[in-house]
Amino acid sequence: MNRAKGGSGDAGAGEGAGVVGGPAGVNLRALRSHNTALVLDLLRTAGTEGISRLELAERTGLTPQAVSKITARLREEGLAAEAGHRASTGGKPRTVLRLVPGAGHAVGVHLDRDELCAVLVDLNGAVVGERRAPLDLGAGAEAVVGAVARVVEGLAGEGLGAAGPTASPVPPAPPVLPVPPVPDSTVRASLSDIGSLLGVGIALPGPLDHARGMLHRVTGFPEWDGFPLRDALVRRLGVPVVVDKDTNAAALGLAVAGEGGAGGSFAYLYLGTGLGAGLVIGGAVHRGARTGAGEFGHQVIQLDGPRCECGNRGCVETLCLGAVARGEIEEAARVLGEGAANLVGLLDIDLVLLGGRTVAGAPDAFVRGVAAVLDARARGEGAVPVRVASGGVAEGAAQLLLAPLFGRGDG
Question: Residue 168: pLDDT above 70?
Answer without folding.
Answer: no
